[in-house]
Fold this sequence. Notes:
Helices cover about 5% and strands about 40% of the residues. By secondary structure, it is mainly β.
Amino acid sequence: MGRSMGGSMGGGGGRWLRAGCAVILLGLSGCELQETTVAVPEDVILAEVFLSVLDEGGRAVALLHRTVGGRDPVPLDGARVRLVGTATSGSQVDTFSHVLDEQPLDRCVEPPFPPEFGGRCYEWEDVGGSLLRPGATVRLEVDLPRGGRLEGLTTIPGDFQLWNPSAEECTLAPDTPLPLVWGQAQNAWAYVVEGQLYGLPQALESEGIPVESDPLPLLGLSVSQADTSLTFPSELGLFDRFQEDRDLLVRLQRGLPDGSWATVWLGAVDRNWANWIRGGNFNPSGQVRVPSVFGDGTGVFGSSVVRSLLITTPGGGPATDDSCGSRG
């Protein structure tokens, strides 16, 4: 049994889409180490590589590590992580090749690290998203120090539009569920909605509901390309019901209490990403991860397109000018 990072998104948070993983959803650094079950007992190199197209551009993060520590483990320092892609814009076809730079390990996973971990982190920021953009097809090539190679292929999901709410920053009346509605993204296999809820300890103190985490992370999931709606915050937290206090989750069915606010990331993820995050309540049979990296090791090469929202109540959070109404 080894350890891996889970995908996550967002500017400062997100456990699942941080292409830091999540990339999230995924800013894309600091994923927690999680247990990963593999089908082979020998020491296997594991590459977890996530691409995210965000509001401000593209991001690629790669974590290389091993499933177990062997007597003569393959060194991971000095590996070459390369992305080769093709992106189309109208009649123009752009091709690119980029080698990721090695970065401190805490850009990929949160410390402290187990003494035997020995992973390596690689990263690339495509500022402005000139190359990593919706619909691009990207090939992964990892050349290992002892001559082995890992390969993978992903097609970044297509762009999509958020229909409700119409503004990326908006104010929501207290105790009001908000339907999130968006258009379909081509090649998406699932949509991950992740929220970081702030100010709940103070906002719910008068109701006698204790909140230990501030912010409180909650996750929602739509499991098909056509499933493009989810109610916030009542349909988030379905994967956290056995981790967070039941009274708190029941209270959030009514909506955000006044004095709280939330950052929300909505990510369209490709097949590779969706198959890798299968586990727990998402797959009743348990933690099952389907690899999309092959060769002299295994792993995931996933991609996402992420949209971010700031949702506030009148009594909490940064002031916004727009109400959380629908587009059109």
